[in-house]
TrEMBL record:
Signal peptide feature range: none
Lineage, top ranks: Eukaryota, Viridiplantae, Streptophyta, Embryophyta, Tracheophyta
Keyword Signal listed: no
Any one GO BP annotation for this protein: trehalose biosynthetic process
Name used for this protein in its record: Uncharacterized protein
PANTHER family referenced in this protein's UniProt entry, alphabetically: ALPHA,ALPHA-TREHALOSE-PHOSPHATE SYNTHASE (UDP-FORMING) (PTHR10788:SF128), TREHALOSE-6-PHOSPHATE SYNTHASE (PTHR10788)
Keywords: Glycosyltransferase, Transferase
InterPro entries referenced in this protein's UniProt entry, alphabetically: Glyco_trans_20, HAD-like_sf, HAD_sf, Trehalose_PPase
GO CC term (a single one): cytosol
Organism: Aegilops tauschii subsp. strangulata (Goatgrass)
Length: 505
């Protein structure tokens, strides 16, 4: 049942009904191989009977003495013969109603190097997430859609067929089972050796101790998140496609004091765009990283673009359509389109309905095969973001430290780091900034550095003068947590007091 045989046959019948004139142009034959597996099960026998009846009906309606539209085989075909059939087939029609990976689609692509056939693939097959960019994705329950897809596949220009096949063939050739196994073992090793397990309950940040260490240090680095860290209360406005973020008024003075301190470097890292950060921090002497590090701005200078090319966000149009669709159908949700990313937010929607809609939205994104493109899907607790691959807040901080080194602004080693924010799991590499085996005067070994361009900024860090803290999150790799923005206000006020003239700093 889950292979969608009946739906496939009904769609083929609809195709023949809508395209009877094709008979004079070329013959179209559907070859269906149904390998007997569970003939002892009553439901299976009933399904087989329905399939046979439908095959007979279609052949009776559209067959002639010279041609039969459907060839249905209730038998096993040896692998060599199957590969030969794959190789000469012009269109592969896979209409699974529920499926796992679906190896047939991969086998078909592998055998089509000469013919460059077209793959019509059910959106419910796992392969749709990887092969979808080079296939025609269909909903097998929509008979008309599948019928139209068959016509489109048969009429597809040679150039488009070759382009789609080249895309999928390259993916199948490169991502072998051996390659998958090696990558999996490598990722597993890296995860267990480099990253601690997320803490279920982190300790509350000792604000007094953090302020005292700040006052005793000579060169401080403060890394601050923006949303849900430095912002005030956000009010949802029905119908708006953006959220107005404003710096918490209680933080304006302490933040300015910290930014003006010559021994303190302040960095604000955000997923939001440049315009929002400019509106809030134009009067502050600090570093800004917008859109998770795609854009950086040094105090008093213009924004610089790190690696943004228009081709890198060619997926944005398709993603926007999906986000618009679900925003219209999910009350109190909204989506934001930024320069290099899109975010769908359902924080203010009904909890259960929002989660259900988010699950459906992810399936729709999978149908667009974003995994094939230069993008990654990032899930938050109540949001879904699509951004370019390789973009994280941790890498943004790496780049800022490298820029500090190039500008020779670090006269003494950094001996105090506070990294605090409401960061998504994808961005928690920002907490892996220091390596505590770094001795005074040694080079930094940041997670995002490469051997040829690693920053020579010096660190003098130990567990006593490095504080990583999450805000409002229960699961985090950070050492500490604060409940919300009120506690952040208290923290920065204490730091500002320690930085003020006449303090112990």
């Amino acid at each position: 049942m889950i292979k969608g045989f009946l739906q496939k046959l009904l769609a083929f019948e609809k195709f023949l009904e809508k395209n009877e004139e094709l008979d004079s142009e070329y013959k179209v034959v559907l070859l269906q191989i149904a390998v007997p597996t569970r003939s002892d099960v009553p439901e299976y026998r009933k399904l087989a009977s329905q399939v046979h009846e439908l095959v007979a009906r279609v052949n009776g309606r559209f067959g002639t003495l010279k041609a039969t539209p459907i060839l249905h085989l209730d038998q096993t075909v040896d692998f060599d013969s199957l590969c030969a059939l794959y190789a000469i087939t012009d269109v592969a029609l896979i209409t699974s109603l529920r499926d796992g990976m679906n190896l047939v689609s991969y086998e078909y692509v592998a055998c089509q190097e000469s013919n460059k056939g077209v793959l019509i693939l059910s959106e419910f097959a796992g392969a749709a997430q990887s092969l979808g960019a080079g296939a025609i994705i269909v909903n097998p329950w929509d008979i008309v859609e599948v019928a139209d897809a068959i016509k489109r596949a048969l009429d597809m220009p040679t150039e488009e067929r070759e382009k789609n096949h080249r895309h999928n063939y390259e993916l199948v050739s490169r991502h072998t089972a051996q390659d998958w196994a090696e990558n999996y073992v490598c990722d597993l090793h890296n995860a267990t050796s480099k990253a601690p397990l997320p803490a279920i309950h982190t300790a509350v940040l000792p604000i007094g101790e953090a302020a005292a260490q700040y006052g005793q240090s000579n060169n401080r680095l403060l890394i601050l998140g923006f949303n849900a860290t430095l912002t005030g209360q956000i009010q949802f406005v029905e119908g708006r496609t953006d959220i107005e973020l404003k710096l918490n008024p209680e933080l304006k003075q302490p933040l300015k004091t910290l930014c003006d301190n010559e021994n303190t470097t302040v960095v604000v890292v955000s997923g939001y765009g440049r315009s929002i950060l400019d509106e809030n921090f134009a009067d502050y002497k600090l570093w800004l990283a917008a859109e998770n590090g795609m854009f950086l701005r040094q105090p008093g200078e213009e924004w610089i673009t790190m690696r943004y090319e228009q081709e890198e966000i060619s997926w944005a149009g398709s993603v926007k359509k999906v986000f618009e669709y679900f925003t219209q159908r999910t009350p109190r949700s909204n989506f934001e389109q930024r320069e290099t990313s899109l975010v769908w937010n359902y924080k203010y929607a009904d909890v259960q309905f929002g989660r259900n809609q988010a699950t459906d939205l992810l399936q729709h994104l999978g149908a667009y095969s974003l995994s094939n493109q230069s993008s990654v899907i990032v899930q938050g607790s109540r949001s879904i973001e699509v951004r370019p691959t390789g973009v994280t807040k941790g890498k943004a901080v790496d780049e800022i430290i490298r820029e500090l080194d190039l500008r020779n602004t670090m006269a003494t080693p950094i001996d105090y780091v506070l990294c605090i924010g409401h960061f998504l799991a994808k961005d928690e590499d920002i907490y892996t900034l220091p390596s505590f085996d770094v001795q005074p005067g040694a080079k930094r070994k940041g997670k995002g550095c490469q051997a040829e361009d690693c920053s020579s900024v010096k660190f003098d860090l130990n567990p006593k003068n490095y504080f990583s803290c999450t805000v409002g999150r229960e699961h985090s790799v950070a050492q500490y947590n604060l409940e919300g923005t009120n506690e952040v206000v208290s923290l920065l006020q204490d730091l500002a007091a320690a930085a003020a003239p006449g303090s112990m700093s």
